[in-house]
Batch of 4 targets.
Target 1
Amino acid sequence: MEKTLVLLKPEIVKRGLMGKLISIYEEKGLTVEEMKLILPTRELLEEHYAEHKEKPFFESLVEYMSSGKVCAMEIQGEGAIQIVRTLNGKTNPLEADAGSIRGRFALSKSVNAVHSSDCPESAERELNLWF
Ligand SMILES: Nc1nc2c(ncn2[C@@H]2O[C@H](COP(=O)(O)OP(=O)(O)OP(=O)(O)O)[C@@H](O)[C@H]2O)c(=O)[nH]1
Ligand SMILES: [Mg+2]
């Protein structure tokens, strides 16, 4: 069984949409193995987003992600990594399928509802970081 890290970003927690998003993953047949609400430290986020350190949006990304509590989950299932990314939709909500999570619940590339691991190596690294 494959495992992936999913983060419900601060706006989802603030808007009271956690349950709705968790249901989407569960209805698909995936299971939530671990879950916690956490106000991430700058240190944790810099490590999590290390690959984006040189990008122009890095500072605002870290600032946004530490602006409120995040719901971190270990989600499990066959092909969980790719399935979650398909459910989430493209990074930019303008390009995401209308039925995807980002298509339904997000308006901008910087405030885009969710994060999930992009490959098995990232999943292992990120799950160790957050849990
Ligand atoms: N403002 C802004 N934010 C960006 C841009 N590209 C990426 N981001 C943010 O940085 C996060 C990580 O970027 P990527 O790893 O490329 O995107 P992703 O893998 O689809 O999304 P994650 O699941 O969040 O990692 C995204 O979820 C966005 O919140 C950009 O061009 N502008
Ligand atoms: Mg990514």
Target 2
Amino acid sequence: MGNKMESKKLNLWYGQKWALKDITLDIPENKITALIGPSGCGKSTFIRCLNRMNDLIDKVRIEGEVLYDGHNIYSRDTDVVELRKRIGMVFQKPNPFPMSIYDNVAYGPRIHGVKSVDSLVERSLKDAALWEEVSDRMDAPAMGLSGGQQQRLCIARALAMRPDVILFDEPCSALDPISTSKIEGLMEQLKARYTQVIVTHNMQQAARVSDLTAYFLLGEMIEFGPTKEIFENPQQKSTEDYITGRFG
Ligand SMILES: Nc1ncnc2c1ncn2[C@@H]1O[C@H](COP(=O)(O)OP(=O)(O)O)[C@@H](O)[C@H]1O
Ligand SMILES: [Mg+2]
């Protein structure tokens, strides 16, 4: 199995601030890759580069490449709308639209011209492990769901676009432990069909869910490898200091 995505000597500046320094990282297909490191080290910046979400931010300059199925997404011929359909994103704070549960999931496919969305909505909610909890109240407002349900709804909304990569930026930070473990179980189930990348400041979570872990510090990627190796036998002193809680 190959790499779904690869970043190659990726650099990013916010104005004068150099936020990503020469990041070269492979993201293998059908695996979960975790990004860890102290606050402000560039995890969100990096994950946003993977579907060009940073394009939306003022004064950003990017050098280097991000390959998706071997194609540089920063090349001029990239269709960014299509790219973001293929590479979905789930954020820290659940952000359902102020509309019904059904319409939240149907929204994306509809604006992209899909006519009958019933079965797609049902399948997406099933795949997001939410169907059983909401199938009898699809017309109810999404805002009435619990935080954990809202986050699974956001995952269903991403799945309805038929992506093949899903990016999660601290998806459980606002959730209780039970909701967190549901999301982690869900990620495990999604592995067979999707490539996933998760930013987490929770090292236990990285150790539980991911196959590979990258440790970031001050805009640099210090170490990257199989999660077990990173946690049990880190090669860099700074990785060891971080995972053993000596700083960060
Ligand atoms: N929109 C922005 N404008 C300017 N600086 C930013 C912006 N977003 C993030 N930064 C800076 O870039 C660095 C990395 O931030 P971020 O990627 O959010 O880190 P993390 O997700 O690891 O906490 C930080 O120093 C942060 O202050
Ligand atoms: Mg962040």
Target 3
Amino acid sequence: MTKATAKAPWVVHVNCNSCNGCDIEFLACLTPMYDAERFGVLHIGTPKHADIMVVTGSVNNRNARVLRNLYEQMPSPKVVVAMGVCPATGGIFADGYNVIGGAEKVVPVDVFVPGCPPRPEAMLDGILEGAKILAGKRQNSVTVKPVRRIKIVRPAAPAADPAAAAAAPAPVKEEAK
Ligand code: SF4
């Protein structure tokens, strides 16, 4: 179960403040041309069922809270893949008056895919790398229950009492007929 779902991750896409270049390339990944589903990657519309968050665009004062909110709605363990230069450093928007910078300022990023925009092949590679990290996180989060120790209580042996043994009636011997 764990391995199967890590190999077939569900991905939610969050566009923070991109020029839409990365988003178009990401959409290309979902078309039959690049066919992300052949790797088991399923694009879904809710963070509540997602294993991997794909972030495009830079983080600014308005979308930082939204990004954090969406990330917190994802079940753990989870992975964040930053697509392109913008979610890595802020990219060409870095000098904007309201731009905070890369996505890592708000959420922990596991994989950075370089490019402006990255090619769909690179994006797929980044998502599959994220799936491997997800599998590792799942293995590490499996809690091993401690072995339950059973305490064996033995009844105490009766104390040797010579007086009681002498007072005990002698065993009856049957006479031979
Ligand atoms: S990395 Fe380049 S293509 Fe992607 S959102 Fe930023 S500016 Fe646009």
Target 4
Amino acid sequence: MSTPEPELEAVAWELEAALGEEDLAKARYQLRMQMTRFVIGLLMPLVMAALWLPTGWAVALRDALHANEVWWATWLALAVFMLVSAVIDLPLAWYFGFRLEERLGTNRQSFGGWLWDEVKETALNIPLQSALFLGLYLIFRRWPNRWLPGLIVIVVVFMVAFYLLSPVFLRLRYKTEPLDEPDLEARLRALFARAGVRFGGLAVLKAAEKSSRGNAAVVPKGAGNEVVISDTLLEAADPHGVEVVIAHELGHKVHRDLPKLMVFLGAAFVGVLAVGYGVLQTLGRWDSLGGTADVATFPLLMATVAWLFGALQVLLNAYSRRIERAADAYALQMTDNPAAFESVMLLLARQNKGLPLPPRWVEFFFYNHPSIARRVLMARRWRGAKA
Ligand SMILES: [Zn+2]
């Protein structure tokens, strides 16, 4: 298929044997489902556009609400478009968010609990996202000749708002509590001191009641950075393993990956919306649509945005794999414990149903982290280079 990499394949075989047939089958299934979800994610906006535009429903909604006349009516129309999308998407969200987790054996939530989480997230998402597009349409309407700087301002404001609200989103789904583990805390404090990052406390993410998946993060808190570890990971990993995971997260911090990623994403967003504006200019007068300033063109804009972001995902994944590799290298350097690195990789593969080595093209298109086999091979080479 591709150039053989015997060393990598040997690592993959070893990991596959360690995981066992059941987890491997689940990992393959999860990957197939992720790819299916991606394709459906491209098709859905087309279905929505077909539902709203040729039927004349988008125009009817606009006229009924007088949606181009006052800003709040524009906002309302956008919210209706998004709400209808969310409702139509709900069975898919259920299948790929709940049913899939049940089949993988990672779900620990009731259907009612899952649905309530979805409702809460949608209730927060729709006003936010529709506000972004409201800003765009108001700019398209008022400053048709200076829309680009306006678009940039809107994207920046939206990214900042999203960043500030991200802890709220996290806590909508999971509770956090301070974690009282003096030994682990001392170990992590020392790690932070070596990295030159200010330690801002230790918290546990109560994930176990909803999912068996493991995760950890280093998030800003006050002047320092708080370590948040899921109870699932805490339960399964030894302190060395936890230290490796947190060292990886610190790598992101030290390399300033989040601000870089935000700039990258923001630029992508501006580019995508600018193309969307061009599409509205060419196709936005179709039937009784009123051009770029008409909120009834929204389904067309959504479809354009979804397709361009789908294409950009490949670029974004390549960039993400690069920063993940660098964070792994940082973790190895800081902890000097490749054995712990390797066992925590295997543990995370088991908890999150990761496939050790997917086909090369799958990794290229869909993986935002290097595959586990590559990450383990990196740790072994690092050890080899030191010896
Ligand atoms: Zn990472």
